[in-house]
């Protein structure tokens, strides 16, 4: 059964004119229900993880500053969001959604978080619309609970997963793979276990060949027993922040490659949304919805 984490907190209101498209968190579940990809029974509302799972990944000092809203002005500016209690609550709720989706993935082979993919959050700070790193928190939870021992994070957002790379830079249990725009944010890249930096205007054919080749390369040296997939759609040619040139068909084929890779090696997959900033919200929703449709085709 397809299980999808969603919460009203995901669509946290932001000041007028803020460029982050919070409305996609409401529109995507509506689209999935409208087209019959998912019904109400497929969605679950996450609650809140105990603090111990947050500080198992993030430094306690950072969490305390976040919880008490005592980040400095420069620290707040780096995150891109105006800091508030409700925003921190949202971030904890997202991390819980990813953890609980991962537990469902163990049961059903694949599961989703409508939000998540907050890969710019470091162990000691937030950046780029990310305060807590749900990918890292989920990975450490799975390891601690003995639900996985070899985790592969496939990060295909157009921006490098710099926070995730920093958190797991010395890990042998978590392999970080980021395929991203080389000249895009962040300008200073951290070192993942495998980084593929792409030039501006990279098209479908080049992208998909690189993805296939590098997944095979990873498999030859690190066979995972769990996959976390950051399926950002800011790789689209229409994306105002992306600078790559993938089509909707290219994004669908990308998602198909990843899902079939996981299915082929019998590794559960937890997928989270990641970025998407095309001017037309329809393009964002259409691109995100494809991976849910594929999950039904491939796993159910």
From TrEMBL:
Xref: CDD domains: HDAC_classIV
Keywords: Hydrolase
Domain Histone deacetylase: start-end pairs: 18-281
Membership in a protein family: Belongs to the histone deacetylase family.
Natural source organism: Algoriphagus iocasae
Keyword Hydrolase attributed: yes
InterPro entries: HDAC_classIV, HDACs, His_deacetylse_dom, His_deacetylse_dom_sf, Ureohydrolase_dom_sf
A GO molecular-function annotation: hydrolase activity
SUPFAM superfamilies: Arginase/deacetylase (SSF52768)
Transmembrane segments: none
Entry protein name: Acetoin utilization deacetylase AcuC-like enzyme
GO BP field: epigenetic regulation of gene expression
